[in-house]
Every structure is written in structure tokens, then in C-alpha cells.
Amino acid sequence: MRLTILGGGGFRVPLVYGALLGDRAEGRVTRVVLHDLDNARLTAVTRVLAEQAAGVPDAPEVIATTDLDEALRGADFVFSAIRVGGLRGRADDERVALAHGVLGQETVGAGGIAYGLRTVPVAVDIARRVARLAPDAWVINFTNPAGLVTEAMSRHLGERVIGICDSPVGLGRRIARVLGANPGEAWIDYVGLNHLGWVRGLRVAGRDELPRLLADPVLLGSFEEGRLFGVDWLRSLGAIPNEYLHYYYFNREAVHAYRQAEKTRGAFLLDQQAGFYERAARADGSALAAWDRTRAEREATYMAENRETAGAGEREADDLSGGYEKVALALMRAVARDERTTLILNVRNQGTLHALDADAVIEVPCLVDANGAHPVAVAPLPEHATGLVCAVKGVERMVLAAAGSGSRATAVKAFALHPLVDSVNVARRLMEDYAGVHPGLAYLR
Questions:
Q1: CA angle at 418 for the pair 438 and 439, rounded to the nearest 5°
Q2: Would you tell me the crossing angle of helices 408-417 and 109-133 to the nearest 10 degrees?
Q3: How does the average pLDDT of the chain come out, rounded?
Q4: Which of 4, 12, 183, 285 lies in disulfide reach of 176, CB 3.0 to 4.6 Å?
Q5: What is the pLDDT of residues 307-343, one digit of tens each?
Q6: Helices 265-280 and 86-99 meet at what angle, rounded to 10?
Q7: What single DSSP character describes residue 439?
């Protein structure tokens, strides 16, 4: 089976390949094609993968190419993990937003809109190429903003593109762990959009254990989300929000913390990964060791400003191992081998949330089999959550409309309508400044 990874020079590719090395079942991936526009990054990552594969019998063959059509042709699965504009673009997204006093996070608020406006045209081009060159392939989208990009691609690939994120999985795992339950045996009632969802229940053997957690302030304050959001707020909500909702519920504090930080997250990763790629290119050292050290630092500093604002302390050791590669491979195995499973995924709504239309991509538990991912019916969201979901989905639709039409006025509307942008005038200035730093936005007129 042939797996193509777009963004194949990306830092997290070794996580995927490492997971593939442990798969010995029939129908496994035998060839991995890495595609990237940056040949130097491809070379560095290929060195890491070669060290990972050393001594592993029948390790998947690795091919690297800068030719997109060559990479897609003949693929059975395509992992799309691109970053349009690179980490420099992310750092600029953050910097411009913070200069106007609004959040610049890469998927939330102004930063997420700027990133989406750059990324959607490229993702649509990829979707069209997949439809032409590998019409039977399944696309698993890692690219952020994951829900928005998946919806853009679904307009050309239908149900054959599925978005993934490890945030809901990590949240469910933490809740199960603190309740003394096996995460693999728990049903997680999670619903929303990507980076905008809530756990409303966790069932073990048919019993919802979440009320027990919410009723115990000591237990509730003992894990990351309890410390991040505070026990009183979680009990008021009656649910456990995805960590990214901290940017909405504590926006003023988050913006202040990011403006006070020595570096934004994007600027930190830009410097950190530049160092990694430089070390990995040297013939006298271990590329894998350099990658391991860099990854550990990256995971430990994730959402550091938010945790500092909330007094949440350091991340727990069990949360430093990532997890998105496990979700992706579980999804791929379920489709390729009909190994039926349940995963929280980004898929078309299909009537699951009545407040949104059928084509809106949402993030919910899905039953996965050889025919793809099928969203599970869920109870309606409370009004406060429905309002936020509808508002953000409306912004996503404005981004898609702007990307499709090339209308700068529509792009300004997307900024202005976001709940975390507080002025139409700020929206106009954001658009002007983003257009000034991102050549990828030149299509907006």
C-alpha cells in the first residue's frame, strides 16, 4: 500500500513513520512518498527516517520528491500536512494580530483567518489534483485550520477527505485517566468544530462518569483542563472544553500573556526547527537524536502562555508523546482493512448538528469502516455553545467565499465577524497588514 505525505519535510513526519514501523499486519504500508517544496527539509527528514528504520525488517520504502503530481499518482492514502508560508508565515500571523491587540494564534481568531486565506487555495488545488491523479485515494487532512481546510477540500473530494486532530483524543484520554477508566473502553461524547468543542459525557460500560468528575472539585482540578479553565468555570459549564477554548473564555488574559512573551509560539518554533534542520543535515551527527531532543522541547512548551496565565503548571509526562499519528493510522487501518473503530474526526455534518447545514465540517465521534467515517448522532449543544459554533462556522464560510472569489472585502468581513476581533476598523487594518507581509494573499483584490 502506498502512502503519500504532503509536507513530507515537516517536523512531525517521523512520528508517522515511527508508528508505521510497528505495523506488521497484512495490507500495511510498504511505500511512503514524501513530497515537499523544500529539498533540504526533505533530505533532513529522510535521514531521520533512515535511522528509525535501521534494523527493522521490511521497513516501508521511503521516496522523496518535489514533484506534486509524481507524489500523488498511484497513492492509496494521502496525508496532507502542508504549511503555506512556513513557520515564518505563522510568526507573521501572530505578530500582526498582536500589534492590533487581538489574538494571533495559528487556528483561532485573526491568525487562523490569515492562515486559512493563504492555505485554502493551495488545499483546493491539491484536492483537484487528487481527484484527477488518484481518484480512489483517501485524503487524511492534518493541515490547519483543520476543519476549514477539510471543508474546502470536501467540495472536490466529497467524503473521501477526512480531517484529524489529536486535541479531542488527548482530552478524552486525560478525563478517562483521572476517572480511573481505560480510555480504549470509554465512549467520549464530544461535539463542536475543530479546536472548538466540548466533552459532555464519558461513558464506561453504559454509565456516564462525567457527573462524578464535575461533582468532585479535587478530582476536577487534578488534570490539565481543570487547572487551565478552573474548577468553578468547568462546573458552571457542565462540560469539559477543548483546550483551545481558553482563547475564547480567557481572551484578554491570553492576549496579554502573548504580548508579554519574549517570543510568539511561531517565532519560537521557527528558531527551534531551523536549528534542528541545520543539525540534521550534518553528516557527523545523528539526525534522529537531534529530532528527539527538539520534539521533547516542542511538546513541553505547548500552550505555555495559557498555562502560565492560569497557573496550570507544567504539562504532565503522559501528554508529551503527541498522538495525532496514532489517530491517522487508526483511521487509515479502519478504511483499508475494514477494521471498524470509533474516532473523533472532522467530517461533513450530514444532519448531525441541526444548527448547521449538511455540508458543514464538524468534529464529532465517527464510526469508521471501509466506506469511510460516519458521524454519530449527538444531542443538541446548549445555546451558548451553539451560538459560538455558528458564529465561527460563519467566519469559516466567509474565508471560503473570499478564497473562491478573490474578494478582499469578503476577507475583511471574515475578520470583522470573528468573535475575537472587536472592531470593523481593526479588521480592515489586519487585512491591510497581512496583505503587506504575505505574498500568498496577493490574489485578494
A1: 5
A2: 130
A3: 93
A4: 183
A5: 566 665 555 555 544 578 889 999 999 999 999 999 9
A6: 160
A7: G
Burial of 100 (0-12, 13-18, 19+ CB in 10 A): middle
C-alpha cell at 348: 461533513
- The 10s digit of each residue's pLDDT in 229-284 is 999 999 999 999 999 999 999 999 999 999 999 899 999 999 999 999 998 888 78
First to last CA, the chain: 43
Enter the pTM of the model. Answer: 0.94
**How far is the C-alpha of 345 from the C-alpha of 373, rounded, in Å?**
8
| Alpha-carbon separation of residue 287 from 3, 13, 43, 283, 345 (angstroms) | 23, 13, 11, 9, 32
The answer to whether the beta carbons of residues 361 and 349 sit under 8 Å apart is yes
Over range 102-107, report the average pLDDT: 93
Note the pLDDT tens digit of each residue in 287-314.
999 999 999 888 877 666 665 666 655 5
Query: What helix, strand, coil percent values describe the chain, rounded to 5?
Result: 55, 15, 30
For the stretch 1-14, pLDDT in tens is 999 999 999 999 99
Angle of the 86-99 helix axis to the 424-437 helix axis, nearest 10: 150
Helices (H), 377-445: 383-405, 408-417, 424-437
Q: How far is CA 386 from CA 57, 118, 378, 392, 444, in A?
A: 51, 28, 13, 10, 31
From residue 116, alpha-carbon distances to 103, 106, 146 in Å are 15, 9, 9
